[in-house]
Design brief:
The complex is a heterodimer. By secondary structure, chain A is α/β, with parallel strands linked by helices. Chain A has 19 helices and 23 strands. Chain A has a seven-stranded mixed sheet with strand order 3-2-4-5-7-6-12, sandwiched between helices. Chain B contains eight helices and six strands, in the order βαβββαβααβαααα. The longest helix of chain B is centred in the N-terminal third of the chain and has 14 residues. Classes of the chains: A alpha/beta, B alpha/beta. At the A-B interface, strand 1, strand 8, helix 10 and strand 21 of A face helix 1, strand 2, helix 2 and helix 3 of B. Strand 8 of chain A pairs antiparallel with strand 2 of chain B.
Chain lengths: 577, 191
C-alpha cells in the first residue's frame, strides 16, 4: 500500500516498521511532526522531553536496556544534546539508537543555519541522509541495522525541504525485534577516563571499518551517464542535480559520515570533472580534497541558504528566468489576533522597557510596530543574558529591562538560568509568558500542561511554585490581558531592584478549546483617525483610504486590546453568545 | 507527460495546506508521480506562505522555481503579484480577489500596491473571485479556500466527480457537504 507522506511522517513510519520501542523528543521546526506521527503507533512508547539533552539521554537509556530507540530534534537542539551524544559515541549501543536531526537551510524557522554533519564528525558517530520521503522511511530502518552492526548511535540528517515535502511512500509491516538482554558492562557504559581512553580506540576502529564497508552500502547510489561531469551529492541536493542536469553522472551518498572514500575515488576515476554539490558547509568537499582527489565545490556554490535546480543551471551558464526586482511590501510573520503576547508587549512598549528575549512566537515582539525585544540568542538565554547585562553595567542600567520567556522554553533551559540569577544574587524582572503550550511549533504539550504526548493526564509542573522553590521570593501571577494591573506590577517590581518573577497567564489564541465569543467592531462615525489602535500590530485591523479603521470580523478574536487603546470610544466590544 | 507545476500562495493561516492536500490526493488517483512541498513553523504566523505541487511521469525536485508554474493559485492579491514571475509565459493565475494588509502597510511604512489585478492581466490570464464574500454568503467564512480550489479546478485536467470524492476523503466528516458546496460554487464561477 502506498500513502502520501511528509518526510517526517515517513521517518515515524520507518521507526514503526523497524521495531522501535522508545522515542523521546523536544518539538522544533522542522522535526516536530515525527513525534506527532509516532503517537499513532501503539507499539512505540513516545514522549515529549523538556529538552533535547533529556530526550537523547532517554534514548541512550532505552538502547542500553536493549531496545531500539529514537530521539528527534531540530539542528540547534543537537547543540543542547551534544553533551550526551559525544559520549554516547564512545559507549555505543545495545539496542539500535537513532537521532533524527533536522537542519534548516534557508532559515525558515530557526536562529542559525548550522550543519549537523559537523556534529556527526565531532561526536564520531555515523550520519546518513535521505533525499525524499521513501528514502526517509527506508534509511530510518537501515540506520538501525548500522547502529547495531557497528555498535554506534546513528544520526539521520534531514532538512526542512525534505521534512516538509510529501511523496508517495510504500508501507510495510512492522518487524518486531527481540529485546536484547541488559548486561552490566562497566568498561563499556561507565565513561570515566580509564574506560573512555580504551573506548576511543575502539570508536576510531569502528569508524574506519564503517568507512570501508560503506562503499558497498545500498544507501549510496552511483549513476554513470555522461562522464564529462560527475556530481557527488547527498540529501535533497540530489533532486536538484537530477532536475537540472539529468544526463550527468551522479554519486549520491546516503552515508555522509564517515565518508565511503573508496567509492568516491572509484567514481572520480570514471568522470572527467568532479563537482561536489552539497547544501550548507563543504563537509564532503574538504574531506575529498584532503584525500587528494581533484574536485570543485564551494568555488561554484554558496554556503548560504537552500539550493535549487535553477541555481545549479545558472552555475553551469544555462539561462534561467529571473525574478524581476520589485518594491512590494514584505509580509513578515506576526503575532495572531487575540495573542496574549501582544497584550504583554504593548505594556512593555508603553513603559519603554527593554526585553531580553527568547525562542518562541514571542520573538516576534521584536517586529514593528512592537519592537520591544532587544535580543534573541537560544533557548533559555533571556534570563541569563539579562543577568550578564546587569552584572556588567549594574542594576541602575537594567532598571528598565526585563527578561521574557515562554512556559515551554522556561522548562527547556530557562529554569537553569533562573537558578543562576538567584544563586549569584542577580536582580531584575523575569516575565514568564505562560500560554499553556509550545506555541510556535504548533501546540505541543510540555511538563506544565498536565498532558503527555500520548494524550494521558499527568502531573503538571507548577511554574510559580517551581520559581519559589528555586528561591525567588517575589513571584506573581497575572492575566496577560490585565494591562492596568500588569503596568502597575511592573513599575513596582522594577523599582525594587530585587529578583521578581511575573507569570502572565492566558492560553494561546490558536490552542484547541480556546473559544473567542466576542468581536471588536469599529464605529466609523467616532473614529478620529489617530491610528493609536494600529500601534499594537494586530493583523485584524486595517486603515481605510479615508484614514478610519476597519476590523476584519473573520480575523478578530475579540481580545479587546484595540478597544483599550482607543481614546474616542470608536471600538466596541460586541459580546457573543 | 511533461511535469505540471502548481503554486499555491497566500497568507499564513489561510488554509493553503488543506488545499494542497486535496490536490495531492487527487493527483495520486490519476497515477502520476507527485511531490508537494509546504511551509510550517514561524512563517505560518501571518507571513507569506507558498506551497508547491508538482506531478508527472517522474518528479525530482519538490519545489517550483522561476518561470516554471503552469498555474498560480493566489489566496490574496499582493501574494499573487509577489510570485507572478514564477509563472510560465502561458501560465494562468487563479486569484482570490481580496486584500490583506501586511504589517508594514498597516503601520504606514509602505503602501499596498494599486491596480494589482490590471497589472497581473498585462502578463497573464487571470481568473478571479472574491471567495471570502462568496463564503460568507454560503454561511461559513472559512470555506473560501474550497471556492478558490473550485475555480482552479476549471483550469486543471481532473474530473469534477474525482475532485468531489477526494474532498470527501480529505476534509473533516462534519464539513463534507459545506466544502463540496463551496467547491462547486467556485467551479461554476469558472464557466
Amino acid at each position: 500500500m502506498k500513502k502520501l507522506m511528509l518526510g517526517n511522517e515517513a521517518i515515524a513510519r520507518g521507526a514503526f516498521e523497524a521495531g522501535v520501542k522508545v522515542a523521546s523528543a523536544y518539538p522544533g521546526t522542522p522535526s516536530t511532526e515525527i513525534s506527532e506521527n509516532l503517537v499513532q503507533y501503539k507499539e512505540i512508547y513516545c514522549e515529549w522531553a523538556p529538552n533535547e539533552k533529556v530526550a537523547t539521554e532517554v534514548a541512550i537509556g532505552a538502547s542500553m536496556a536493549g531496545v531500539r530507540s529514537m530521539a528527534c530534534m531540530k539542528h540547534v537542539g543537537l547543540n543542547v544534546a551534544a553533551d550526551p551524544l559525544y559520549t554516547a559515541g564512545y559507549i555505543g549501543v545495545n539496542g539500535g539508537m537513532v537521532l533524527v536531526v533536522a537542519d534548516d537551510p534557508g532559515l525558515y524557522s530557526s536562529q542559525n543555519e548550522q550543519d549537523t554533519r559537523n556534529h556527526a564528525r565531532g561526536a564520531l558517530v555515523c550520519c546518513i541522509e535521505p533525499s525524499d520521503s521513501q528514502e526517509a522511511k527506508d534509511f530510518t530502518k537501515f540506520a538501525y541495522k548500522i547502529s547495531e552492526e557497528y555498535d554506534m548511535p546513528v544520526i539521520l540528517r534531514t532538512t526542512t525541504r525534505l521534512a516538509h515535502s510529501q511523496q508517495e511512500v510504500e508501507l510495510c509491516d512492522r518487524v518486531e525485534v527481540e529485546d536484547k538482554p541488559y548486561e552490566k558492562n562497566i568498561a563499556k557504559n561507565v565513561m570515566m577516563p580509564a574506560n573512555a581512553k580504551r573506548r576511543h580506540v575502539i570508536v576510531e576502529e569502528k569508524l574506519a571499518r564503517l568507512a570501508k564497508d560503506g562503499a558497498n552500502f545500498e544507501i549510496n547510489k552511483m549513476e554513470i551517464n555522461d562522464t564529462s561531469i560527475g556530481f557527488v551529492t547527498c540529501g535533497i541536493a540530489y533532486q536538484y542535480v537530477k532536475e537540472a542536469m539529468p544526463n550527468a553522472s551522479v554519486l549520491k551518498l546516503g552515508l555522509v559520515n564517515p565518508l565511503p572514500m573508496d567509492l568516491i575515488k572509484e567514481f572520480a576515476k570514471k568522470v572527467d570533472k568532479l563537482v561536489i554539490f552539497e547544501e550548507l558547509m563543504p563537509i564532503i568537499e574538504e574531506q575529498v580534497k584532503a584525500a587528494g582527489i581533484d574536485c570543485v565545490g564551494k568555488e561554484m556554490f554558496t554556503v548560504l541558504g537552500e539550493y535549487s535546480a535553477n541555481m545549479l543551471k545558472k552555475a553551469f551558464g544555462k539561462a534561467v528566468p529571473a525574478i524581476k526586482q520589485n518594491n512590494l511590501p514584505m509580509r513578515p510573520p506576526i503575532l495572531c489576533p487575540g495573542c496574549p503576547h501582544r497584550s504583554v508587549f504593548s505594556v512593555l512598549k508603553k513603559l519603554k522597557i527593554h526585553a531580553s528575549g527568547d525562542i518562541g512566537c514571542y520573538t516576534l515582539g521584536a517586529v514593528q510596530p512592537l519592537g520591544v525585544v532587544d535580543s534573541t540568542v537560544c533557548m533559555g538565554a533571556s534570563i541569563s543574558v539579562l543577568h550578564g547585562i546587569q552584572k556588567a553595567k549594574g542594576d541602575e542600567f537594567t532598571k528598565d529591562w526585563v527578561a521574557v520567556i515562554g512556559d515551554s522554553t522556561f522548562l527547556h533551559t530557562g529554569v537553569n538560568s533562573l537558578m543562576n540569577t538567584v544563586y549569584n544574587k542577580g536582580v531584575g524582572v523575569v516575565m514568564i509568558l505562560d500560554n499553556r503550550t509550545t506555541g510556535m511549533t504548533g501546540h505541543q504539550d510540555h511538563a506544565a500542561t498536565g498532558k503527555t504526548l500520548q494524550g494521558e493526564e499527568t502531573n503538571a509542573v507548577d511554574i510559580p511554585a517551581l520559581c519559589r522553590a528555586i528561591g525567588v521570593k517575589r513571584v506573581f501571577e497575572i492575566s496577560a490581558f490585565d494591562q492596568k494591573g500588569l503596568e502597575k506590577l511592573l513599575k513596582e517590581e522594577l523599582s525594587l531592584r530585587q529578583l521578581s518573577v511575573i507569570v502572565t497567564k492566558a492560553p494561546c489564541a490558536l490552542l484547541k478549546g480556546v473559544v473567542f465569543k466576542d468581536k471588536c467592531k469599529e464605529d466609523t462615525e467616532k473614529c478620529k483617525k489617530c491610528g493609536r489602535c494600529l500601534s499594537i500590530g494586530c493583523p485584524a485591523l486595517t486603515k481605510c483610504a479615508d484614514g478610519t479603521i476597519k476590523i476584519d470580523q473573520s480575523m478578530c478574536n475579540g481580545c479587546g486590546l484595540c478597544q483599550t487603546y482607543c481614546a474616542f470610544d470608536a471600538i466596541k466590544l460586541i459580546k457573543g453568545e | 507527460m511533461e511535469t505540471k507545476n502548481i503554486m499555491i500562495v497566500g497568507v499564513g493561516g489561510q488554509g493553503t495546506l488543506l488545499t494542497s492536500r486535496i490536490l495531492g490526493n487527487l493527483i495520486r488517483k490519476y497515477g502520476y508521480d507527485v511531490k508537494l512541498s509546504e511551509v510550517h513553523g514561524m512563517a505560518q504566523r501571518g507571513g507569506s506562505v507558498v506551497t508547491f505541487v508538482r506531478y508527472g511521469d517522474k518528479v525530482y525536485e519538490p519545489i517550483v522555481e522561476e518561470g516554471m508554474a503552469d498555474v498560480l493559485i493566489a489566496f490574496e492579491r499582493l501574494e499573487a503579484i509577489r510570485y507572478q514571475d514564477f509563472l510560465k509565459d502561458d501560465g494562468v493565475i487563479v486569484l482570490n480577489d481580496v486584500r490583506i494588509d501586511p504589517m508594514p502597510v498597516v503601520i504606514g511604512a509602505c503602501e499596498y500596491p494599486k491596480d494589482i489585478v490590471d497589472e497581473l492581466k498585462k502578463g497573464h490570464t487571470v481568473y478571479s473571485v472574491n471567495a471570502n464574500e462568496e463564503a460568507i454568503k454560503l454561511g461559513n467564512s472559512r470555506v473560501f479556500n474550497l471556492i478558490i480550489l473550485g475555480l482552479a479546478a476549471k483550469h486543471l485536467d481532473f474530473k469534477v466527480e474525482d475532485w468531489l470524492s477526494v474532498i470527501e476523503e480529505t476534509v473533516p466528516p462534519k464539513t463534507i457537504e459545506l466544502n463540496k458546496k463551496a467547491f462547486l460554487l467556485g467551479y461554476e464561477k469558472g464557466e
